[in-house]
């Protein structure tokens, strides 16, 4: 181009005048195979590969084809065809970029702006180490029908709260095709011309997206510009999921050997896929994880298997990779169900599996050297719950444990694998009941079957557990014979029972003293102290002492003893009053004694009785008083107790 003024020239004697205006003219272009092309034109095109060679507006040759997440479908049609892999603590997104998840939260894996009703969620949890989180489950959320499809370890698939039974033939559930084989579970659906396939084997999830060109993907699998905190989903996470933990390094791990194994992805047969799927993110994920987490529970093959499957999704079958690596294509722990606080892992090097406790869950028990929760003590029962996976860590089969009574076995919760041992008033299971000062102690033992008391034992198991109840405090209840009876509810610690006091005028205890009853001096009166709510097979009620006063206060004077608690006459009738008879004491949950009616001289005519009670383990012979009647003497007639009286009674226990 040039800026020219008017120009006159002569051609063959003819004058030619050319007029130029003050303008710039661009005469540049592109040359390809010796041919010149104007800017902004197509040089060549191949519909089968969707590629075009163009001369750009700036006169630059450019090759235009499908985008980095697309493939050519022929006829100049590009479609989205990309894979996201989530394995261990890592996410390799559709751009081949690597993210590490260091907490135990739920994250948005895939969301499509053009399909607002579809979300794919990944949950990360701890396993053998507190400071390493691994992929634990995947949730497919469809807001249109309002359903959640949960893909979990062990091949379990839940539709909201209902478990599904799947086979190799697809089963249609809310527009999602669900199938299961020995390699894992696959969920497929089509929305807005976008085909989505989600594969999960309990440890690795791979998402294949196929659809129209230009489809964008958000979440951990897509747009990497958003921070992890933006993609964290609180509605699927625990409140403490972001808490960070630390543990000492595992000194048994040989990182050099780990690196060599992870680098197998650069060798045959994997190398045939290296040009289409970059192995470096998989190698980094493999080495960084296995240099600090033990290569057990299938993790030694997990990253290799993930790369092999990603290749096969893009028509690069990795024949012979299992023999090369010593791995299996089948899913690990496919048919074992573990509880929420457990994960499935290798029990032996031969590949046997069982449910192990998650590290954070088990740490609270290990800190106190316990295998379960504290004993739950009630008044006449007790229970203790052991954590099944902790017991199995001791190589003990918890289904073979028993209490002192071999017929009393633990009850296993099939959902949580917690094992509960208990006894109650209906079945004591060999519980031993003792006293220590003012305490009643229930004791039993969880032990393995055929437990040996020999000096040398192997693989034996024994846990003692007990409940210690303090004796109820002394309470006072006022009782007047003409009020028929008094019932007082007593609560003290684990003890919760009712004390009922009644007075009768006959030995058969059929004639209760009523409001208008007349009681004569020297008339026989039977007094019963009965309890409701105590376990009569374990404890008895003992009247330590009973005495009478002419006032409601148990410490008032004068005082007359009826049942004496002393070194010589323990829980027995006062030898100074031969009318007193202790008819039942220390045999059950009630006591009974009788005496001839009397009154205090010079008083108000009221007689209050006070009794001190205690509970005694029924197995102890000391519950039954050992009385010595030889020292008793008869009460003389005409003493200060003569006369008529209306009587009342007050009790302490």
Automatic annotation (TrEMBL):
Organism superkingdom: Eukaryota
Domain ZP, residue spans: 376-634
Coiled coil regions, renumbered to chain: none
Xref: InterPro entries: Snake_toxin-like_sf (IPR045860), VWF/SSPO/ZAN-like_Cys-rich_dom (IPR014853), ZP-C (IPR055355), ZP-C_dom (IPR042235), ZP_dom (IPR001507)
SMART domains on file: C8, ZP
UniProt keyword terms in alphabetical order: Disulfide bond, Signal
Protein name as catalogued: Alpha-tectorin-like
């Amino acid at each position: 181009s040039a800026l020219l003024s008017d120009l006159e020239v002569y051609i063959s004697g003819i004058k030619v005048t050319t007029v130029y205006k003050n303008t710039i003219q661009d005469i540049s272009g592109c040359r390809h195979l010796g041919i010149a092309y104007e800017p902004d034109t197509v040089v060549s095109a191949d519909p089968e590969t969707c590629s075009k060679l163009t001369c750009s507006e700036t006169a630059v040759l450019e090759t235009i084809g499908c985008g980095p997440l697309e493939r050519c479908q022929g006829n100049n049609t590009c479609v989205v065809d990309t894979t996201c892999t989530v394995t261990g603590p890592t996410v390799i997104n559709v751009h081949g970029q690597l993210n590490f998840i260091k907490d135990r939260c739920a994250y948005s894996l895939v969301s499509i702006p053009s399909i607002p009703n579809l979300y794919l969620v990944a949950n990360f949890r701890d396993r053998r180490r507190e400071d390493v989180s691994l992929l634990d489950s995947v949730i497919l959320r469809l807001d249109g029908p309002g359903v959640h499809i949960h893909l979990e370890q062990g091949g379990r698939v839940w539709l909201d709260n209902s478990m599904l039974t799947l086979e190799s033939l697809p089963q249609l559930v809310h527009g999602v095709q669900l199938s299961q084989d020995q390699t894992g579970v696959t969920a497929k659906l089509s929305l807005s011309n976008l085909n989505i396939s989600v594969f999960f084997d309990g440890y690795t999830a791979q998402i294949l997206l196929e659809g129209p060109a230009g489809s964008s993907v958000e979440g951990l699998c897509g747009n990497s510009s958003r921070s992890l905190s933006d993609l964290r989903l609180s509605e699927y996470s625990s409140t403490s999921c972001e808490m960070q933990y630390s543990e000492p390094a595992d000194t048994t791990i040989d990182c050099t050997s780990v690196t060599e194994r992870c680098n197998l992805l650069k060798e045959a047969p994997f190398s045939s896929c290296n040009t289409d799927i970059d192995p470096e993110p998989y190698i980094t994920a493999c080495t960084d994880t296995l240099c600090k987490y033990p290569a057990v529970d299938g993790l030694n093959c997990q990253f290799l298997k993930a790369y092999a499957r990603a290749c096969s999704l893009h028509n690069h079958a990795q024949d012979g990779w299992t023999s090369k690596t010593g791995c299996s294509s089948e899913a690990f722990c496919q048919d074992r169900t573990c509880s929420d606080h457990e994960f499935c892992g290798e029990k032996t090097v031969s590949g046997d599996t069982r449910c192990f406790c998650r590290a954070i869950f088990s740490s609270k028990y290990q800190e106190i050297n316990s295998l379960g929760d504290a004993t739950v003590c009630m008044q006449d029962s007790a229970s203790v719950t052991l954590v099944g996976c902790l017991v199995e860590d001791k190589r003990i089969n918890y289904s073979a444990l028993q209490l002192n009574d071999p017929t009393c076995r633990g009850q296993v919760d099939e959902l949580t694998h917690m094992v509960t041992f208990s006894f109650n008033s209906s079945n004591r299971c060999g519980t031993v009941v003792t006293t220590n000062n003012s305490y009643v102690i229930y004791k039993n033992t969880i032990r393995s079957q055929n437990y040996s008391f020999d000096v040398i034992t192997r693989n034996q198991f024994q846990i003692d557990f007990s409940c210690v109840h303090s004796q109820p405090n002394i309470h006072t209840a006022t009782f007047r014979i003409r009020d028929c009876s008094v019932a007082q509810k007593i609560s003290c610690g684990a003890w919760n029972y009712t004390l009922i006091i009644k007075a009768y005028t006959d030995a058969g205890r059929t004639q209760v003293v009523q409001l208008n009853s007349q009681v004569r001096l020297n008339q026989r009166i039977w007094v019963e102290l009965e309890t409701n709510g105590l376990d009569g097979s374990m404890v008895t009620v003992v009247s330590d002492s009973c005495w009478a006063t002419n006032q409601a206060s148990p410490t008032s004077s004068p005082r007359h003893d009826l049942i004496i608690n002393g070194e010589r006459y323990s829980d027995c009738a006062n030898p100074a009053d031969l009318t007193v008879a202790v008819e039942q004491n220390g045999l059950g949950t009630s006591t009974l004694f009788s005496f001839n009616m009397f009154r205090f001289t010079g008083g108000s005519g009221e007689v209050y009785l006070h009794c001190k009670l205690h509970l005694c383990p029924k197995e102890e012979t000391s519950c039954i008083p050992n009385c010595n009647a030889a020292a008793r003497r008869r009460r003389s007639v005409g003493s200060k107790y003569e006369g008529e009286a209306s009587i009342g009674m007050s009790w302490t226990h």
